[in-house]
Amino acid sequence: MADDVFFTDADFEMYRKLIYNESGIHFTATNRSILESRLKERLRENGLASVRIYFDTISKDKEELKNFLDSITTNLTRFFRNQAHFDALQHHVVPELLKIKKATGNYNIKIWSAGCSTGEEPYTIAMLMNEILPPPWKFDIVASDISLKCLMTGKEGFYADTRVTGIPDAYLKKYFDKVEGGYKAHADMMSKIRFDYHNLKNDSGLRNLDIVFCRNVLIYFDDVAQTAVVNRFWDSMASKSFLFIGHSESLFGMATKFEFVKTQWATLYRKFI
Ligand SMILES: C[S@@+](CC[C@H](N)C(=O)[O-])C[C@H]1O[C@@H](n2cnc3c(N)ncnc32)[C@H](O)[C@@H]1O
Predict the structure, then answer these.
(1) Is the beta carbon of 73 within 6 A of some atom in ligand 1?
(2) For residue 208, how far is its CA from the centre of ligand 1 (angstroms)?
(3) Domains of the chain, first to last
(4) DSSP 3-state assignment of 4?
(5) What is the position in ligand 1's atom list of the atom closest to the CA of 117?
(6) CA distance 86 to 68
(7) What are the pLDDT digits (tens) for 217-236?
(8) pTM above 0.85, yes or no
(9) Is residue 136 reached through a cis peptide bond, with omega within 30 degrees of 0 on the bond before it?
(10) Is 5 a residue whose pLDDT tops 90?
(11) How confident is the model at residue 4 (pLDDT cuts 50, 70, 90)?
């Protein structure tokens, strides 16, 4: 435990509690230095000298609280991250949903990318759904995150040359335009995705979703917060629907009604009542 003047153990505890209560994100002693460096940045931007004063600021100023939470998130992502999930989407989930939904006469598939970061995940889903859905089937995607900066990137749909490496060439040509320094997503693909600020600690208000992707987000939460988030997913999903979580994440031992599904491509969960 470090107890320096800038950021004492008591300060760490105070911030840790606030972050957890506001977002579900669980800071441990191991990532204390990350918090400390992000706080230094926030203090510099706000022209403040002490973490105590900044704590008072974010306790009163909701906008700065959002900026602070944004600054402590980890936003690592990439196009076609964990291809096995997209194979399971293509070969298991979509064929199942087409069978189930055909009988209802509802030809729209509703998808949520929860914790979408800078948008690579929802754009990957959009490209794939566009390829695999036969007419008259349609889809729409809500992509949400707690990071406003990330959401702006997603909404802009511009990705630097170095970031599009995971996109197969044929998809890159079909769904993006080459522009200076990178690639810009086509307007018709962008129109399928609604980027929206949402903190997973709250109910999203979304209902009847057919597929939820929440990958590499739960790892930042403790068991209590994870269970609460997963049970809120349950409420937002249709009676026959599918949930993807990160490949290093699991609902094992959690009090949820989701059923584990093992496909030949990847494991996932379903709500099948
Ligand atoms: C590591 S990224 C994962 C991005 C993408 N799902 C993937 O797997 O590539 C985790 C994202 O979760 C978001 N996040 C963390 N806590 C959140 C919360 N309470 N509500 C909404 N998003 C949150 C972060 O801002 C970050 O962009």
Answers:
(1) yes
(2) 22
(3) 9-72 (1.10.155.10), 83-272 (3.40.50.150)
(4) coil
(5) 27
(6) 33
(7) 999 999 999 999 999 999 99
(8) yes
(9) yes
(10) no
(11) low
